[in-house]
Structure prediction request, 98 residues.
Amino acid sequence: VNPGFVSYLERKYHKVVHLVDFMAACGATGSAEAVVEACEVFASGSARQWLKIAGDEKAILVDSYLIARPDRAPGVVAEFGAFIGYSCVRVARRASIA
Prediction:
Protein backbone atom coordinates (compact mmCIF):
# COMPACT_ATOMS: atom_id res chain seq x y z
CA VAL A 1 0.00 0.00 0.00
CA ASN A 2 1.26 3.44 -0.92
CA PRO A 3 2.55 5.19 2.25
CA GLY A 4 1.05 8.46 1.04
CA PHE A 5 -2.38 6.84 0.84
CA VAL A 6 -2.02 5.39 4.33
CA SER A 7 -1.05 8.82 5.65
CA TYR A 8 -4.08 10.37 3.92
CA LEU A 9 -6.43 7.82 5.49
CA GLU A 10 -4.94 8.37 8.95
CA ARG A 11 -5.41 12.13 8.65
CA LYS A 12 -8.91 12.02 7.18
CA TYR A 13 -10.24 9.15 9.29
CA HIS A 14 -8.03 9.41 12.36
CA LYS A 15 -10.90 8.85 14.78
CA VAL A 16 -12.00 5.66 13.02
CA VAL A 17 -8.39 4.44 12.93
CA HIS A 18 -8.07 5.11 16.69
CA LEU A 19 -11.38 3.35 17.35
CA VAL A 20 -10.36 0.27 15.38
CA ASP A 21 -6.99 0.18 17.18
CA PHE A 22 -8.77 0.56 20.54
CA MET A 23 -11.24 -2.21 19.74
CA ALA A 24 -8.45 -4.55 18.63
CA ALA A 25 -6.41 -3.78 21.77
CA CYS A 26 -9.32 -4.50 24.12
CA GLY A 27 -10.37 -7.63 22.25
CA ALA A 28 -13.78 -6.38 21.12
CA THR A 29 -14.49 -9.20 18.71
CA GLY A 30 -16.85 -12.10 18.47
CA SER A 31 -20.03 -10.52 19.78
CA ALA A 32 -22.24 -7.49 19.24
CA GLU A 33 -22.11 -6.84 22.99
CA ALA A 34 -18.31 -6.53 22.91
CA VAL A 35 -18.44 -4.12 19.96
CA VAL A 36 -21.14 -1.93 21.56
CA GLU A 37 -19.32 -1.85 24.89
CA ALA A 38 -15.98 -0.96 23.29
CA CYS A 39 -17.56 1.89 21.32
CA GLU A 40 -19.16 3.26 24.49
CA VAL A 41 -15.91 3.04 26.47
CA PHE A 42 -14.02 4.71 23.63
CA ALA A 43 -16.63 7.46 23.36
CA SER A 44 -16.93 8.37 27.01
CA GLY A 45 -14.77 6.22 29.20
CA SER A 46 -11.10 5.87 29.85
CA ALA A 47 -10.20 6.35 26.19
CA ARG A 48 -11.37 9.99 26.40
CA GLN A 49 -12.28 10.21 22.73
CA TRP A 50 -15.37 11.98 21.44
CA LEU A 51 -17.37 9.73 19.18
CA LYS A 52 -20.84 10.50 17.87
CA ILE A 53 -22.89 7.45 18.79
CA ALA A 54 -26.51 7.03 19.89
CA GLY A 55 -25.54 6.03 23.41
CA ASP A 56 -26.81 6.97 26.85
CA GLU A 57 -30.46 8.15 26.83
CA LYS A 58 -30.91 7.54 23.10
CA ALA A 59 -29.66 3.97 23.44
CA ILE A 60 -32.08 3.31 26.29
CA LEU A 61 -34.96 4.66 24.20
CA VAL A 62 -34.06 2.54 21.16
CA ASP A 63 -33.53 -0.58 23.29
CA SER A 64 -36.82 -0.17 25.14
CA TYR A 65 -38.73 0.22 21.86
CA LEU A 66 -37.14 -2.87 20.34
CA ILE A 67 -37.81 -4.99 23.40
CA ALA A 68 -41.42 -3.76 23.81
CA ARG A 69 -42.49 -3.92 20.17
CA PRO A 70 -45.63 -6.00 19.76
CA ASP A 71 -44.49 -7.97 16.72
CA ARG A 72 -41.25 -9.70 17.59
CA ALA A 73 -41.01 -11.56 14.32
CA PRO A 74 -37.89 -10.87 12.26
CA GLY A 75 -38.21 -7.71 10.23
CA VAL A 76 -36.30 -4.94 8.59
CA VAL A 77 -34.62 -2.11 10.45
CA ALA A 78 -32.95 0.72 8.55
CA GLU A 79 -30.29 3.05 9.90
CA PHE A 80 -29.71 6.39 8.21
CA GLY A 81 -26.57 8.42 8.70
CA ALA A 82 -24.35 5.61 9.91
CA PHE A 83 -20.81 6.63 10.78
CA ILE A 84 -19.28 3.52 12.30
CA GLY A 85 -22.32 1.25 12.55
CA TYR A 86 -22.73 1.46 16.35
CA SER A 87 -26.52 1.86 16.16
CA CYS A 88 -26.80 -0.88 13.58
CA VAL A 89 -24.93 -3.35 15.81
CA ARG A 90 -26.94 -2.23 18.84
CA VAL A 91 -30.27 -2.66 17.02
CA ALA A 92 -29.28 -6.04 15.58
CA ARG A 93 -28.25 -7.23 19.02
CA ARG A 94 -31.55 -6.21 20.63
CA ALA A 95 -33.67 -7.42 17.73
CA SER A 96 -32.11 -10.87 17.95
CA ILE A 97 -32.67 -11.07 21.72
CA ALA A 98 -36.32 -10.03 21.52
